[in-house]
Amino acid sequence: xxxxxxxxxxxxxxxxxxxxxxxxxxxxxxxxxxxxxELEREVGSLLKFDGQAxxxxxxxxxxxxxxxxxxxxxxxxxxxxxxxxxxxxxLKLIGEGGTGNVYLAVDTRLDRKVAIKLxxxxxxxxxxxxxxxxxxxxxxxxxxxxxxxxxxxIGETQDRNYIxxxxxxxxxxxxxxxxxxxxxxxxxxxxxxxxxxxxxxxTAHRAGIIHRDIKPENIVVRTDGLVKxxxxxxxxxxxxxxxxDHLTTRTGVVIGTAAYxxxxxxxxxxxxxxxxxxxxxxxxxEMLCGRKPFEGDTWSDVMAAVLVKDPPAIDxxxxxxALRGIVERCLEKDPDKRFQSAGDLTFALRxxxxxxxxxxxxSAVTHDKPALPGSWQKTGLVIATIIIALLIGGxxxxxxxxxxxxGPAKLDPKVPRxxxxxxxxxxxxxxxxxxxxxxxxxxxxxxxxxxxxxxxVVALTDPGTKTRDLxxxxxxxxxxxxxxxxxxxxxxxxxxxxxQWIFFTxxxxxVRNIYRVPASGNGPTEPVLASKETLNLEDISRDGRFLVFxxxxxxxxxxxxxxxxxxxxxxxxxASAPTRAARLSPNQKWMAYTSNKNGSVIVVRGVSATGTxxxxxxxxxxxxxxxTTSMWRADGNELFYLEGRTLMSVKINTDGDRFExxxxxxxFKLNIEDEERRxxxxxxxxxxxxxxxxx
Amino acid sequence: xxxxxxxxxxxxxxxVTNEITDLLLAWNDGExxxxxxxxxxxxxxxRRLARSxxxxxxAGHTLQTTALINEAYLRLINARRVSWHNxxxxxxxxxxxxxxxxxxxxxTRTYKKRGGGAFQVTxxxxxxxxPTDDPDLLALDEALTELARVDERKGQVVExxxxxxxxEKETAVALNVSPETVRRDWRLAKSWLLRRLTQKPQ
Lengths: 695, 202
Description:
The complex is a heterodimer. By secondary structure, chain A is an alpha+beta fold. In chain A, the strands form eight sheets. Chain A has a six-stranded antiparallel β-sheet. In chain A, strands 28, 29, 30, 31 and 32 form a five-stranded antiparallel β-sheet that branches. A four-stranded antiparallel β-sheet of chain A has the order 11-10-34-33, with no helix packed on it. The interface between A and B is large, with 56 and 64 residues.
C-alpha cells in the first residue's frame, strides 16, 4: 500500500511530466525523482499508459451496457406472478397479442367481469408509442356504440400500462370461421355480422377514428348474435407494430394481419377511413367463401396479391349478385372507387337484403314483421330482417321507405334527429352510472353548490331572450327559485362559504365584472370588483377571503388568472395569459388551472398566504393537450379534470409543501357539451358528480 | 445543471421516480436497507431506458449517449424534490447505484457466457470507435475498488464519470473541487486503471 505523501509525489510528478513533450518526459521524471528509483518506476509506468488512456472509457458504462441490457427482456414469467392490478383481480389469461396479453379480471369495486390488456414492457417503454396509444384509446373511450367494446379505464401501475374494457363473452369471428371451415358462413349470418361491424365503423369514422386492423380476430360474436368490434384505438398502434414486425420476423401471425391490409396500407401510404372499408370487404369475402381473397405462402406474396391481383370471383351459389357486387366494390384497389363511407356501405348492404337480383324492390316490409324477400328465400338465404333491422337501428328507414316504387331509394338512411338544445343536471357515481337528476331539462350552465351541498345555484338561459339568469335549485325537491332577473347576462355563480352571499359574473354597463347578491334574495346586488377589464368569476377560497377569476384587458384577449383578497380588495395577477379556470385547493396551498401556453393542460402551483404564486408550475394532466376544467375533491387529495369529454382523476398530495402527483387515470366519459364552459361538472364531498349532461 | 429538463417531467413516470428519490434520500441518510430496494427499481428503469434507446438506434439513429444519461437521471431523480446544490451530490449517489447494477449485470452475464470461468481483459483502441458488447466491467470494478483505497477521490471521479455518466463539470460540483482537478484525477486514474488491468496483480 502506497502512503499518502508518496502518492501525492507520484501525482505531482506525473502531471508535471505531462506538461512536457512526450520525448522530454523521461528525462524530466528522472530529474524530478532525484534518485528515488522506485518513485521513477512508478511514475514512468503510469505515463506509459497515458497514451492509451485517451481511448479508455470513452463513453459511460450505461451507454456501453445499453445493448446488453436491452436484450434481456422481462419475460412473461414476471407477468404470471401478477395477481392484482389496482382494483382488478386477474383471473386468467384469455389472449396474447403483439402489444400485450389480455386477462379476464374482476373489478373488485363493482364485482363485474372486465377484460384487461396489459401492455408489454417493450411496448410500454417507448414513450412516443405509449403516448399515441393513450391518445387513441382515449379518443375511442369517447365512442359509445353497442357494437364497439367499451373502454372503462386506461391506467398505469408500477411500470405497466393497461387498458380495461368490457368483457365480452362470445367467440371471435376467427373461431366461428374455423368451426365451419373449409366452408364459409351462410349469407344471412355473414350479412348480420358485417352490418354490425360497419355500424361500429360508421360511428368511429364520424368521430375521426380509423380502426386500421379489421380482421376476424378483432370481431367477437356474442351468443345472442350481438357483434362487438375490439381493439379500436389500439388498432393503430398494433398495425404499426405489425408492419415493423413483418420485416423482421415474417411469422404466420403477421401474414394473417397482412392479409387484411388495404393496398394503401401495404404501401405504407397515408390511409383514411376507406382502408377499413377494404378490410371489411376481405372479412365479408372470407365469411362467404371460407377463404381469404388474397393468399400466398409468404408475406410478400400476400402483399403482392393485395396490391395487384383481383380476388377469385365469389361463387354465385353462396351469395346473391347484389352482395357479390358489394364485396367487389369494397375490394377496389383505388380508394376512390370503393364505398366512400361506412354509411354508404350500410345503405348498400341494407339494399341488398331487400332487393332481388333483378333490382326491383320488394315492398312487403312492415313495421313489426318485415317479410322475407322472395328471391332470397329461393336461394335458401333466409334473411333475418327483423334481427338485422333491430341490430342496426334501421327500423325507421324500413318503415319510411316501404313504398311501391322501384329503384334505389334516395332517402338518407341516417334520419337526423331534431334534438332540443336542452341539458339536465344529472348525478353520476364514480363509475359514471347515472343516479338521478335535479330539476327539469333546461339550458343550464356554470353550477355551484351551497356550502351544505343541499342546493345548487346555476345560470339558466331564457329560451326567449337567450340571456342567462341565476336560479337556485333544491337538491331534494328540484324546486327552483329565481335569484336574479336583470335583462343582462348573469352567470358563473359561487356560494360564499358562510352561505350568506352568491358572487357572480354579470354584463352590466357594457363590461363583464363581478357582483354579489344575498343568497336569500332579499337585498340589492352590489359590485365586488368593478373594472374596465373583462372579469369572470371562477372560485372562492374556503375561508372566504379570496376570489379567483379570469381577467382579460379586452374581451378578445386570452385571459390570465387573477386573485383578489376580499378584506382589503388587494389584487394579484396569479398567472399570466393564456391561463384560466383556476381552482384553489381546499387548504388554499395550491392552485390548479388550465394553461394554454402549450395546448391545453392542467397545471398546479403553490399559493402563498397572501395569494401570490410560489414555486414552479407542475403539469398534472399527463400527455394530454386537451385538458380543461379542473376540480378538487373536498379533501384536496384528488384533482379531477376533463380530457375532451372524459373525466380524469389525478391523485395529489396537497398536505405538504412538496408537490407530489400521480399519473392521471380516466374515470368515465360524460355526455356533455364540447364547448368549454365553467363547471360542466361538480363533485360533492362524498364524491358524487353533478354534471350538465346533454338531454 | 443542464441535465434537468423540466419540460420532460411530463413524460416521466412520477411514481417510480418519486420512490427512487425517496430511497436515495434514505440511503444518503444512512439507511442501508434502502439500497436493497433501490437496486431493482433502478434496474427496471435502466433496462427500460436502454431498450427504448436501442430501438431508436435500430431504427437507424445512432445511440445518443448524452441523451441516454440525461434521461436516466430524469427517471431516477425527481429534480423538484432535491435542492439545486444537492443535485450533483445526488448524481454521485446514483452513480454508485448504477455501478452496482451494471457490474452485477455484467457478472451474471459473464457467468452465463463463460460457465463461470475466467475472462479476458480486452481494452484496445477499437473500444473508442465501437465499444464491445460486453465490456469487462467486473475487472474494472475490482480495479476501481483498489484505486479508491489508494486515492478515494480518484475512485469517485471514475465512478461518477464512467458509471454515472456525469460530465467533468458535474463531477466537480458533486465533489466540490474544480473541474481542472477532476480532469487531472480522471487522466491519472485512467492510466492507473489501465496499468492495473493489463498487469497481473502482485
